[in-house]
Amino acid sequence: MRFSVVAVAALLFFGGCAKQGAFDLFKIDETHERAVEELRSGAIVLSLETKAIISSLYLNHTDPATYHDGENFIVSVYFANDDKSYKVRELESSGFQLTLNGKKATTIEPLGERDPRRALMPIQNNWNRYYYVQFTSEPNSSLALQLEKNQTGSVVLNYQKWPLIEPAHLKSVYK
Q1: DSSP class of 75
Q2: In which band, very low, low, confident or very high, does the pLDDT at 21 lie, cut at 50, 70 and 90?
Q3: How far apart are CA 51 and CA 166, in angstroms?
Q4: What is the greatest pairwise CA distance in the chain?
Q5: Taking residues 70-96, what's their average pLDDT?
Q6: Which residues share a beta bridge with 49?
């Protein structure tokens, strides 16, 4: 009984000393917070074997002040090496096709390790390939980003577009 009284008194005495909580030390900016919310991932699996893993980030929601022309994504893709070689597999040469609502991309640009756009992607590793992918503006409010290969299968990552906000007003909305 005497120990519990001393323990409660010590807890009350030292509990009021902290000016910061643990979560105050892990602040991230709003862009990276939205990036975590917008991350979607999926895999193409054939006969219990993973053929490809895709993660994508819809940049129009992550940083709308910068990405407002067309539909913009950062895509991270891992390809399983069927031939057991150490060659690097790229999106264009691997036989996989990336589409948004059935339409091909207008721009597919590989991102280097030090590219600042790649820093927005919450998933970072050495075995994925990273791309900036742009599609023409889509009138539909639902977006279906699909990675497919005829013999292997496909995976679809779904997004919902926000209502259109004029780029000039974006800074006031997100500040």
Answers
A1: E
A2: low
A3: 40
A4: 74
A5: 75
A6: 46
Residue with the bigger pLDDT between 65 and 10: it is 65
pTM of the model: 0.73
Q: Is 15:34 a contact under the CB 8 Å cutoff?
A: no
pLDDT at 25 over 70: no
Instruction: Using CB atoms within 10 Å of the CB of residue 108, give its burial: 0 to 12 exposed, 13 to 18 middle, 19+ buried.
Output: middle
Which residue, among 38, 145, 30, has the nearest Cα to 91 in the 3D structure? 145
Q: CA–CA separation, 12 vs 20, rounded Å? A: 16
97: exposed, middle or buried (C-beta count within 10 Å: 0-12, 13-18, 19+)?
A: middle
Task: Identify whether the C-beta of residue 81 lies closer than 8 Å to the C-beta of residue 63.
Answer: no
pLDDT in tens, 133-154: 999 998 888 999 999 988 778 9
Token pair belonging to 104:
């091909």
Amino acid code (one letter) for 99: T
Q: Which two tokens stand for residue 120?
A: 């927005």
